[in-house]
């Protein structure tokens, strides 16, 4: 019987998808890394009866870092990180042994269905998984497609089954765009973090300069925070009026009604609504 390995981005997602596709008839066990479970069941795939193995990763399998000496702050000029410093892929979390775990579960598989998140990061993780498992999968005919990509937007029975019945292929260009972004983040972030940390050390007594981090994502976020802070500091309060109405019925606790308009900044307009309320017999 042929084997189909299916990989999701998180253990909880793998469990949910397996439960839907197996209609609750799957068996589960812990993987060798202790973090990811494997859910197995029999079913139909590409017109044949197969054994499904559904498992997951825990986010990115690999991360990008500089090689050897370029991680030494004292021996490397931060400017060298933009051009001379080579990079390499390393396991994102070595304690999880994710590459070994994937290879153990993928050994002897004939097909793989990738259920990673439907964004560029998920597309990048697709190829991280494929790089790990390709060497141990069964080699089929050159004409046979063995790699499939599931596209889904929610974890409902309908959406998951639609994704399973309309499998496509992973997008390498989107994955490569993430590789490029990761390298830019690494080079820019490390270079400026090292530069400004060393620059500010000892300059200000009240500044904790053990590490002053910089990142392409942090900079615009800091801009948003500063902009919001400036708006708060420059805020000038303005007088406004509200309409408060209470409904009484016998000795019951009065019911306070909410005003759909909430507030007005013109007193005369507020008075107009008060007058209308006083003459009204019904309220919604």
SSE order and pairing:
Elements: E1 2-8, H1 11-21, E2 27-30, E3 37-45, E4 48-56, E5 62-66, E6 87-91, H2 98-106, E7 111-115, H3 120-133, E8 147-149, H4 157-165, H5 172-200, H6 218-233, E9 245-247, E10 255-257, H7 267-279
Parallel strand pairs: 1-4, 1-7, 7-8
Antiparallel strand pairs: 2-3, 3-4, 5-6, 9-10
Radius of gyration: 29 Å
Largest sheet: 6 strands, mixed
Q: Strand portion, in percent?
A: 15-25%
Instruction: Give the % helix.
Output: 25-40%
Instruction: Report the order of strands and helices.
Output: EHEEEEEHEHEHHHEEH
List the quaternary state of the chains. Answer: single chain
Cα end-to-end separation: 66 Å
Q: Name the poorly predicted regions.
A: none
Strand element count:
10
Task: Please characterize this protein's 3D structure.
The relative contact order is 0.10. This protein has 7 helices and 10 strands. The protein is α/β, with parallel strands linked by helices and 284 residues long. A hairpin with a 2-residue loop joins strand 3 and strand 4.
């Amino acid at each position: 019987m042929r084997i189909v390995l299916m990989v999701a981005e998180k253990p909880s997602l793998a469990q949910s998808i397996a439960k839907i596709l197996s209609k609750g008839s799957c068996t589960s066990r812990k993987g060798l890394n202790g973090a990811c479970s494997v859910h197995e069941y029999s079913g139909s795939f590409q017109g044949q009866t197969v054994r499904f193995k559904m498992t997951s990763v825990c986010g990115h399998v690999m991360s990008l870092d500089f090689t050897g000496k370029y991680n030494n702050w004292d021996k490397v000029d931060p400017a060298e990180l933009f051009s001379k410093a080579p990079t390499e892929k390393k396991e994102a979390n070595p304690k999880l042994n994710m590459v070994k775990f994937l290879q153990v579960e993928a050994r002897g598989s004939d097909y793989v269905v990738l259920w990673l998140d439907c964004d560029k990061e998920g597309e990048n993780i697709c190829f991280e998984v494929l790089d790990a498992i390709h060497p141990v999968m069964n080699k089929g005919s050159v004409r046979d497609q063995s790699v499939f990509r599931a596209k889904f937007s929610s974890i409902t029975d309908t959406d998951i089954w639609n994704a399973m019945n309309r499998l496509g292929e992973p997008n390498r260009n989107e994955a490569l765009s993430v590789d490029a972004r990761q390298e830019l983040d690494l080079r820019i972030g490390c270079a400026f973090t090292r530069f400004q940390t060393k620059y500010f050390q000892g300059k200000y007594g009240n500044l904790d300069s053990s590490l002053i981090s910089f990142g392409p994502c942090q900079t615009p976020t800091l801009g948003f925070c500063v902009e919001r802070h400036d708006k708060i500091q420059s805020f000038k309060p303005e007088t406004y009026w509200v309409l408060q109405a209470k409904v009484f019925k016998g000795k019951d606790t009065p019911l306070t009604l909410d005003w759909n308009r909430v507030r007005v900044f013109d007193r005369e307009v507020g008075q107009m609504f008060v007058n209308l309320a006083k003459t009204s017999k019904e309220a919604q």
